[in-house]
Amino acid sequence: MGQFLPFRRDGATVYLSGQVCEWDGSVTYVGPVLNTPEGIEAGKKAAKICALNLIYRLRQACDGDLDRVDCVLKLGGFVNCLSGFPSSPLVINGATEVFIALFGEEGWHARTAVGVSGLPGNASVEVDAIVRLRS
Questions:
Q1: According to a count of CB atoms within 10 Å of the terminal CB, is the N or C end of the chain lower?
Q2: Residue-range domain boundaries for the chain
């Protein structure tokens, strides 16, 4: 969905481009995330898919060896929502949970979670990341 690299390395730092909740070539969650328990839960599932796509790209950046990951520095989360949506952090927790489950303490990160009026492919969620590798 555009002309860009999936990641860029600068020394030990990997900058991962935003990944939407796409699986098998299709966006799995589309449109705005609603501020209901069901909507927030669906948004969290979308964020988990974004995180899995980031890990796939991170694995490429690590030449197939995720043991090279030293720590996750930062996630940026974008939630497709209506104006005034207060639950972006709850939605992006879905991605955070994946990184902590995979990397333990080193998966904890700084984070941004913002609401936006639209995302590529009308995806519900997009997440990007910055990761430091071991030398």
A1: C
A2: 7-133
